[in-house]
Amino acid sequence: DAEITQSPRHKIIETGRQVTLACHQTWNHNNMFWYRQDLGHGLRLIHYSYGVHDTNKGEVSDGYSVSRSNTEDLPLTLESAASSQTSVYFCASTGTGIYEQYFGPGTRLTVT
Amino acid sequence: AQSVTQLDSQVPVFEEAPVELRCNYSSSVSVYLFWYVQYPNQGLQLLLKYLSGSTLVKGINGFEAEFNKSQTSFHLRKPSVHISDTAEYFCAVTLGGTASKLTFGTGTRLQVTL
Fold this sequence. Notes:
The structure holds 2 protein chains of 2 kinds.
Chain A: E1 4-7, E2 10-13, E3 19-25, E4 31-38, E5 42-51, E6 54-57, E7 64-66, E8 76-78, E9 87-94, E10 102-103, E11 107-111
Parallel strand pairs in A: 2-11
Antiparallel strand pairs in A: 1-3, 3-8, 4-5, 4-9, 5-6, 7-8, 9-10, 9-11
Chain B: E1 3-5, E2 10-14, E3 19-21, E4 24-26, E5 32-38, E6 44-50, E7 56-58, E8 64-68, E9 73-78, E10 87-94, E11 103-104, E12 108-113
Parallel strand pairs in B: 2-12
Antiparallel strand pairs in B: 1-4, 3-9, 5-6, 5-10, 7-8, 8-9, 10-11, 10-12
C-alpha cells in the first residue's frame, strides 16, 4: 500500500544545532507540504513543493528550508534551531487533480 | 486569501449524544472544504470532503457535514457519538487548482465521556 512516512518520530536537539526531518511518500504525488502544529494555531504551512526542483515558502517559513531532488522526498531543514521551533511537524502530499492531502504520522521536535 | 474559523476549541459530550462541530470560512471565491480527524499521537485522517454537488456529505465513522454557501459554513455532525470519537477535529479549506494549499482552522477537541 502507498504511504507517507516521517523520520525521526521524536527528536531532541540543542538550540543552534541543525536538524533535518525526513518525509518520504510512495503515492507518486507531485505536491508535498510541510506543516507545524501548535496549540491554538492548528496547522500552519511552512514550505511546499509542486514537483522536482520546485519549492515555495508558506506562511511560517523563516528558519526553515526544503529541497526537492526527487518525487518521493521532501526533507525539511532547520539551519539553526530555536526554542520557538519546538513543535510537531507534519508532512503531507497530494496528486494533481486530487484536493485532499494525505498526512504522515508526524515528528515531535523539542529544541532545548 | 481564505480563512477558517472553528468557534469551539473544546466540545464535551456524553456517549450516545448527538454532536455538532462548527466551522465557518471566508473566501471571495468558491472553495473546497474538508474535515480531518486527529487521534492522539497520530497524523491527520480525512473524515469527509465537499467538492461540488450535494451539500450534505457523508464521511467515515458515521459523520456528516452540510455545506451552506449563504452562511459560509461547513458544520460537522454525528447523531450518536462513541467514546472512540474522542479526538481533535480540523476544518480546512482550499481554493482548488492544480496544487491546492490547505488552510486549517485551529481545531476542536471533542471529548466523549460515559
